[in-house]
Structure formats: C-alpha cells, structure tokens
Design goal:
230 residues; alpha+beta; archaeoglobus fulgidus dsm 4304 fold; 8-stranded mixed β-sheet; 30% helix; magnesium; DNA damage
Length: 230
C-alpha cells in the first residue's frame, strides 16, 4: 500500500519540480513581511493531531506583526521524503486565517535540499504562490553527500553541492554555535536566502526570528492542547 502511495507522491513531486525556479521573483528592496511556519504533533484518542503556527514578522523592525494557529487531525502517515503531503493541508488552512499577507515564507524544514528537490518549503510554494525558504536544524543526508562544516565565525557558510548543483548551504549564524541548513524553496536564489536569513537573526537563537517564533508557538500550543485534553 505504501509503495502505491509513494508512487503517486513521486509523480506529483516530479511534475512540480519541473517548475522550480532558483531565482528571485521579487525585489529585495520591497520586502516588508516574512512569515515563519512550523508544526507540532501529538497523539490523541489513537489519532495523530498537529497544530500549525504561523508568525508574521516585519522584515525591517523584526517586530512580530501577527501569530495564528490551527489544530487538526493529520491523516497522511509519516513517510520519509514525503513530509509535505502530511503537513500541507493544515499549513494551507492556517494561512487562510492570516490578516496580513507576507511576501516570503520561511519553513522549519528543507526546500531544494531534498532527494527530489521537493522539501516542504518548495512544495508549499506552489500552493501559497509565494517565494519560500527552507530552514533546517539538522542535515538530511542525500545519497552519500556529506556537508563541510563552515569556519567558526558569524556568516560563514559552505555549499552542499550535488551533481554540480547547489542544493543548500550550511550557514553559521553565530560564532561557537552549531550551523543551520538553509535552502531555496522556490522563486528565490541561494544568496538572497542567505542574506534574508542573516538579516533575521538576533542574539536569542541560531534560527531566524520567524522560524524561531513559529517553533516556540507550536510548542506552547501543543502543551496547552495536550493539557486541556487530559
């Protein structure tokens, strides 16, 4: 059964991947709002439940403009490499609740840095019709390709190159702190991804503010919901 599901998922990913563009579809001077997206899961009455949180941040002031969340049952099983099919329905529905319209969306997960170049950030771009960025806390190894650790200084990076193409970048956002793994989602280039990510780093975390805030909110909401259910 799983093979049949993944065959269908493979076809969808392949078809969408033909339309990925690793170039900017916008002017960096016009960026005002950037959203961060994350999900948290738990089990409830033998069902998998998740809460999606989206935080919209002012790119210039770094202020949090809006935070929205939505809870729902997750019906697609976890299959490595196909996370987007599991998470996208809830993400899309949560986006519908936003009052503000961000120009760019950051995801706690990968984008082009994926075996089929279709991580959650890339896949979501086609449904949200927005440039997207993948921000991962750990490296999802692709084939036999390892990453090279960047030097220990803020802003240092090394590229993850597979078959002659830059899939992603290992970026050090703070000295003496573990790097993060960034990648284009869609309609953006890797240098702009790097610039935007670094511009949204503060002293509180190695993660950019929108993703960090979304991560904190999902943990807070999961704790609230699980406590309430008990």
């Amino acid at each position: 059964m799983e093979n049949k599901i993944t065959e269908n998922f493979d076809k969808i990913q392949y078809d969408l991947s033909q339309n990925i563009k690793l170039e900017n579809s916008f002017s960096q001077d016009n960026i005002q709002l950037i959203a961060g997206v994350d999900l948290a899961y738990w089990e409830e009455d033998e069902k998998t439940i998740a809460v999606c949180c989206i935080c919209v941040v002012d790119f210039l002031t770094k202020a949090i403009i809006e935070t929205k969340f939505l809870k729902d049952e997750i019906k697609v099983p976890y299959i490595p490499g196909y996370l987007s099919f599991r998470e996208l329905p809830l993400i899309i529905n949560t986006f519908k609740t936003l009052s503000f319209d961000p120009e760019i969306v950051m995801f706690d997960g990968n984008g082009y840095l994926h075996p089929r170049n279709m991580g959650i950030a890339t896949h979501a771009s086609f449904h949200l019709n927005k440039p997207t960025i993948g921000i991962a806390k750990s490296y999802l190894k692709i084939g036999a390709v390892d990453f090279v650790m960047p030097s220990d200084k803020e802003g240092a990076f090394t590229d993850i190159v597979i078959n002659g193409t830059i899939y992603g970048r290992v970026l050090r956002t703070h000295k003496h702190v573990k790097p993060i793994f960034i990648s284009c989602g869609n309609w953006i280039d890797i240098d702009t991804v790097t610039d935007i990510t670094l511009a949204l780093i503060n002293n509180e975390s190695r993660l950019p503010i929108p993703v960090r805030q979304a991560d904190l909110e999902t943990k807070k909401m999961r704790k609230r919901f699980v406590k309430y259910e008990k």
